[in-house]
């Protein structure tokens, strides 16, 4: 017993140790501990973010170097404070305060002493910096905007937040990421990949050389430059036209689905969200609850389309064989829903497809809408077919564009009406507002423009997108390069397009004619309700216009939606015609019209619901 | 006796284990004190350079020890013991203080630590006393004297302060047990430790319940075959429960906070994560860092000179008491297991050697050597890997330290010398 006691103890101790060691080194061990290791510091080398150019190669967004004066308090030696402050251009007491703050933060780690010096200050300082121990200059890269427009398209970058950090392990505290717009959607392309260098440290946090002689280090990968489909000139021009007006303009090249311009009014200068004043400016924009400059009205703004929607009803009716172009409907200055007479502004008379469109006759289109449902054995089936046709134009759902946000819009359907009224308790008369694009139908300006492009293409469209080239190579994504076909046969488009051409030639938009350009368009005047103190109140109508030009070989399809702009041709029509002229001709011949559109604001309309003043709707004041 | 015959008779297996441990130890000292700025391996201003010098000195010591008569150690053991006691006493007057402990004599070129010497001489003296023909370990008086031989140096070392080294001397009690002290002394000590630890971990109530259950179980199972006195057993149980109660009292009222902290760290008593984090940064810093360093080594380790935590000096005292964490980080489980197995094999070999001694002095000294090496190895590695509370004693043959290496070598090789002589003097 005594002889084996000691041996047993030795063996038991050995086994216990091996057990504990295998627990520590085999079971608790996780291999990827480089970043958790307190002895290893990762130093990141950030690549420059990719530049953004417009469709013609004009620079939109670049980078600007900014210089921060950094300090490591522990290394600061006695210095001529006054001279140094003069050099930096900061008051002495501020300098001392900042230095104290840095020392409190950490005597060993660098802190920013003076952020974002200009290039000139940097040049002056550079020479003398070496005299000041403990201070150095760190270069940073800020976004530089070579335009004061397109903020809604370009988006902005900002520091990553907790959610970004949790979602993407690539990010480290303090890094920047695209927040909205192109900066967000094409973040990975623009950002590149940061390089990393691992440094071995001791327990006092001092560097003692590269870790593993730099075997794990990586070089930064440059951000890629991209070309976007936006036309810088057109975009800037559109934003000037939107001055003082709320609404959205979207222009699309029908042959490719490329978005030529995407204007949201009011907007802001993208440069506001860069640099020292960023948070102050952001708060200002964020809390502007009347004009909502951060709200992108070109893609997130769902409203009833109004009369442009009539063209689609005409197409559906032709496709379903409910009418022929010559089918006529009489207008008695209005139409009856049951015993109630609803008004029509077209002047009255017998209307066929052509005159129905160019006079925008409500009675004609309500008649056509009824005829569509007459083709089907039941309202439900008619509504299903109607919905399917409408959705084939990209309405009522996300378009699938490469924009960071957007809305579905709304196309009413059988389920919705069954729920509202009960099954079989509704009819074409109940839902007649669909015929004229009022009521339940809602679209975004982007959808409106895309629908116009589909008409311009005579039956198909390309998913609208903003990315054109990456590193000079055209995008190949079939999502954007393959046509999406509508459910309407090509032959039915011609009579409708003829109607739209006549809108411009001698119809509701004859006021907006541009010399030498054949335009097909459709005006819209959309009734507009809001609630003021809980009371449903009618506001001045929204002015809508969709158009494409030239009629035979469309280069541009455009939708303009101006809130409270009254009738279609008054604001939207004029603005659309100027945009088309600018894009196709490159110059404006109708200088006085241009002047009027640039100067005219609708601020007094937007103030109406808030000022408490008595107001008349649709007042005819220019 | 010629040198040739010594080389023939010496137990080469033990020598091999010894050399491997010293070599692995030196490599790890080299790694943990290595800096890029001093590329020279044998620069004596560096710690690893100094250690290399002491390895050389140890070889000289080995040659001297092997050249001496075996009977020399037995004959002069009392003198050695007296000298080491005088040296320990002298520290109170002439000692040099390093890191708060007055444990060294400054000899100019190196610092002598007499407590390391005392380990060897006490083992010799104890063996000498117990092997005396007049000593009968069954006698209380002789038991008392044996313990006094152990206690005197221990008592002198405690106030240096160096309680860890003092603890080492108690391991020599094994020798006394081997030579006939009833084992229930050991059993009682073991039970006391067990009750102490379990009380801290689970509380008096659970410990009492378990003790009661064990006694009931004992009666149920053994009633038929044995006659067991009931009263002493119940008395024993009552004493155990009272002891358990007193543990709480002592822990909360007699211990200082730093002692409590060490125990709560060791037994993982603290569950609150915020406080745990605090402990890791303060009193538990060493243990936490050393565990982390070992863990980060994984199975194969990070490679020689590649230990990031070692290079960053995250583990304090890494070249001395915490040298094993360098093994863990750089050589991984492969390295740590190798070292543990080497120690285990070496100790088992020494037990075998001790048991084959015909001369009782040699055998008892052998047991003394095993006890001292075992307690160092057990407490040091146990502390570094976090299964024992922090007690600062070095890892034999491994840790940086001139006196340590020299006297551990002497301790071992005196025994190996005695072993070569076993046939001649085996009367």
3D structure, described in words:
- The complex is a heterodimer of chains A (622) and B (427).
- With 622 residues, chain A is of the alpha+beta class.
- Helix content of chain A is 34%, strand content 22%.
- In chain A, the strands form seven sheets. In chain A, strands 2, 3, 4, 5, 10, 18 and 19 form a seven-stranded mixed β-sheet that branches. Chain A has a five-stranded antiparallel β-sheet with strand order 12-11-23-22-21. In chain A, strands 1-8-9 form a three-stranded antiparallel β-sheet, with no helix packed on it.
- In chain A, strand 18 and strand 19 (473-474) form a beta hairpin.
- In chain A, helix 9 (232-241) runs antiparallel to helix 19 (569-585) and helix 11 packs parallel to helix 13.
- The longest helix of chain A is centred in the N-terminal third of the chain and has 26 residues, at 2-27.
- The mean pLDDT of chain A is 87.
- Chain B has 427 residues and is mainly alpha-helical.
- Chain B has 19 helices and three strands.
- Chain B has helices at residues 3-9, 12-33, 47-67, 70-75, 77-94, 114-131, 140-157, 163-170, 173-178, 183-202, 204-222, 230-254, 257-266, 273-281, 285-297, 308-311, 323-355, 360-384, 402-420; strands at residues 96-98, 101-106, 111-112.
- Chain B is globular and about 70 Å long.
- The model of chain B has no long low-confidence stretch (mean pLDDT 84).
């Amino acid at each position: 017993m005594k002889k084996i006691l000691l041996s047993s103890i030795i063996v038991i101790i050995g086994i216990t140790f091996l057990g504990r060691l295998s627990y520590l080194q085999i079971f608790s061990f996780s291999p990827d501990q480089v970043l958790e290791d307190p002895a290893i510091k990762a130093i990141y080398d950030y690549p420059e973010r990719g530049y953004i150019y417009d469709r013609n190669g004009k620079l939109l967004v670049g980078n600007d170097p900014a210089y921060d004066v950094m300090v490591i308090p522990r290394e600061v030696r006695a210095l001529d404070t006054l001279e140094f402050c003069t050099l930096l251009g900061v008051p002495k007491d501020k300098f001392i305060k900042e230095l104290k703050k840095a020392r409190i933060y950490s005597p060993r780690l660098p802190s920013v002493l003076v952020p974002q010096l200009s290039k000139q200050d940097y040049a002056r300082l550079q020479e003398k910096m070496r005299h000041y121990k403990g201070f150095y200059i760190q270069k940073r890269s800020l976004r530089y905007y070579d335009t004061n427009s397109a903020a809604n398209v370009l988006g902005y970058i900002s520091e990553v937040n907790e959610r970004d950090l949790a979602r993407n392990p690539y990010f480290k505290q303090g890094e920047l990421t695209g927040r909205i717009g192109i900066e967000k959607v094409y973040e990975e392309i623009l950002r590149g990949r940061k390089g990393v260098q691992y440094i071995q440290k001791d327990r006092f946090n001092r560097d003692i050389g590269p870790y593993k002689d730099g075997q794990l280090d990586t070089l930064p990968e440059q951000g890629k430059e991209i070309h976007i489909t936006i036309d810088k000139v057109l975009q800037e021009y559109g934003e000037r036209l939107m001055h003082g007006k709320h609404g959205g303009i979207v222009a699309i090249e029908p042959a490719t689905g490329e978005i030529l311009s995407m204007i949201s009014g009011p907007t802001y200068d993208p440069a506001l969200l860069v640099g020292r004043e960023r948070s102050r400016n952001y708060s200002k924009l964020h809390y502007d609850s009347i004009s909502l400059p951060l709200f992108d009205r070109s893609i997130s703004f769902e409203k009833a389309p109004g009369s442009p929607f009539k063209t689609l009803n005409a197409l559906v009716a032709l496709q379903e064989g409910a009418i022929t172009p010559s089918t006529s409907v009489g207008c008695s200055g209005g139409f009856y829903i049951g015993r109630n007479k609803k008004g029509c502004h077209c002047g009255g008379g017998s209307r066929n497809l052509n005159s129905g469109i160019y006079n925008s006759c409500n009675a004609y289109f309500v008649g056509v809408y009824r005829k569509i449902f007459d083709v089907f054995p039941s309202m439900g089936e008619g509504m299903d077919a109607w919905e399917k046709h409408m959705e084939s134009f990209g309405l009522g759902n996300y378009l699938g564009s490469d924009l960071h946000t957007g809305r579905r819009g709304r196309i009413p359907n059988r389920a919705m009406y069954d729920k509202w009224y009960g099954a079989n308790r509704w009819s074409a008369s109940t839902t007649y507002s669909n015929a004229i694009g009022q009521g339940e139908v809602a679209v975004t300006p982007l959808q409106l423009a895309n629908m116009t492009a589909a008409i311009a293409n005579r039956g198909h469209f390309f998913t609208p997108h903003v990315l054109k080239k990456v590193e000079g190579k055209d995008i190949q994504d079939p999502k954007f390069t393959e046509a999406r076909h509508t459910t309407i046969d090509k032959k039915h488009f011609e009579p409708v397009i003829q109607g739209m051409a006549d809108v411009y030639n001698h119809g509701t938009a004859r006021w907006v004619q541009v010399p030498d350009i054949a335009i097909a368009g459709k005006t819209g005047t959309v009734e507009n309700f809001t609630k003021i103190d809980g009371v449903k109140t009618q506001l001045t109508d929204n002015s809508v216009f969709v158009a494409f030009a030239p009629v035979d070989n469309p280069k541009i399809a455009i939708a303009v939606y101006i809130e409270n702009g009254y009738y279609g041709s008054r604001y939207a029509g004029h603005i659309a015609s100027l945009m088309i002229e600018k894009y196709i001709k490159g110059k404006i011949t109708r200088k006085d019209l241009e002047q009027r559109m640039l100067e005219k604001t609708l601020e007094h309309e937007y103030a109406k619901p808030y000022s408490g003043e008595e107001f008349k709707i649709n007042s005819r004041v220019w | 006796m010629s040198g040739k015959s010594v080389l023939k008779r010496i137990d080469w297996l033990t020598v091999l284990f010894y050399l491997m441990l010293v070599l692995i130890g030196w490599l790890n000292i080299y790694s943990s004190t290595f800096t890029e700025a001093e590329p020279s391996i044998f620069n004596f201003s560096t710690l690893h350079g100094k250690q290399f010098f002491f390895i050389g000195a140890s070889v000289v010591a080995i040659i001297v020890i092997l050249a001496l008569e075996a009977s020399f150690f037995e004959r002069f053991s009392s003198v050695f013991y007296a000298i080491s006691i005088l040296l320990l006493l002298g520290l109170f007057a002439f000692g040099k203080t390093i890191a708060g402990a007055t444990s060294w004599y400054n000899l100019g070129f190196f610092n002598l630590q007499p407590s390391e010497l005392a380990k060897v001489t006490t083992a010799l003296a104890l063996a000498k006393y117990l092997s005396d023909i007049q000593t009968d370990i069954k006698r209380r008086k002789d038991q008392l004297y044996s313990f006094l031989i152990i206690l005197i140096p221990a008592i002198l070392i405690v106030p240096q302060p160096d309680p860890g080294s003092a603890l080492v001397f108690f391991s020599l009690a094994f020798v006394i047990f081997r030579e006939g002290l009833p084992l229930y002394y050991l059993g009682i000590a073991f039970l006391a430790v067990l009750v102490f630890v379990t009380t801290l971990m689970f509380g008096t109530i659970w410990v009492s319940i378990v003790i009661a259950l064990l006694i009931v179980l004992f009666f149920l199972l053994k009633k038929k075959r044995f006659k067991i006195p009931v009263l002493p057993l119940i008395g024993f149980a009552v004493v155990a429960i009272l002891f358990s109660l007193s543990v709480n009292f002592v822990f909360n009222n007699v211990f200082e906070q730093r002692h409590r902290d060490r125990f709560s760290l060791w037994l993982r008593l603290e569950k609150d994560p915020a406080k745990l984090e605090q402990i890791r940064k303060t009193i538990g810093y060493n243990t936490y860092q050393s565990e982390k360093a070992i863990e980060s080594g994984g199975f194969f380790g990070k490679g020689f000179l590649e230990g990031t935590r070692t290079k960053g000096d995250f583990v304090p005292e890494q070249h001395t008491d915490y040298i094993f964490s360098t093994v863990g980080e750089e050589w991984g489980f492969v390295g740590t297991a190798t070292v543990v197995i080497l120690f285990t094999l070496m100790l088992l070999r020494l037990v075998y050697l001790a048991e084959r001694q015909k001369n009782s002095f040699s055998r008892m000294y052998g047991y003394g050597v095993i006890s001292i090496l075992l307690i160092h190895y057990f407490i040091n590695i146990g502390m570094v890997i976090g299964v024992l509370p922090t007690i600062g004693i070095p890892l034999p043959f491994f840790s940086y330290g001139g006196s340590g290496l020299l006297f551990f070598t002497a301790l071992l090789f005196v025994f190996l010398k005695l072993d070569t002589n076993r046939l001649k003097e085996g009367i």
